[in-house]
Write the structure tokens for this entry.
Amino acid sequence: MSNPSNQVRSALTKEWIFNALMILMQTKNLNNISITEVCTKAGVSRMGFYRNYNIIEDVIVERIDQVFTDFFDQALAGENFDNYYSTLLFFKCFRNEKILVENLVKSNVSYLLLAKCNEYLHKLATRIVVKTYDDSFKENYIAKFYVGGFYCVLIEWALNGMKESDTYMADILYEFCGVTIPKGNAEKIV
């Protein structure tokens, strides 16, 4: 069993590395950032980096995994889980990671986010959104359609500075799917 102080140290090291990488990506393309630069900016040793990651992309992938884990934990925690709430929660979770999404787009590595959207949102779409179909091939294609839509809308929203509210974004997707939007939705701009 791991020592609790080692777990805390590892969590802090990971957070410092992630934050340093996000700062560096504000001015440099991910492909032009070295592990040494990240470690220097984070104030950690290269050994500290390699204890937690193999390559720089692992830092980003781990963070995206955490965002989706948090998303599912919150979405499934409510008694009244529904598709609208999960759509709204998707935008709330990614608003908290605005800099990450913007940096991915700017560095032309948003495919890392797309891969994780395929992994996580496909499961959700198959389980919740498209279970009305008896045809597994059709179900798979429709799930992929939803995944692509969520991903593309997220990227476009980030490119526009995430000015629209989470509720407005959820309403757009929900309306597109032909479902009545719950009353009391918020204003367009946050």
User: Anything to note?
Assistant: The longest helix spans residues 136-159. The CA atoms of residues 66 and 99 lie 15 Å apart.
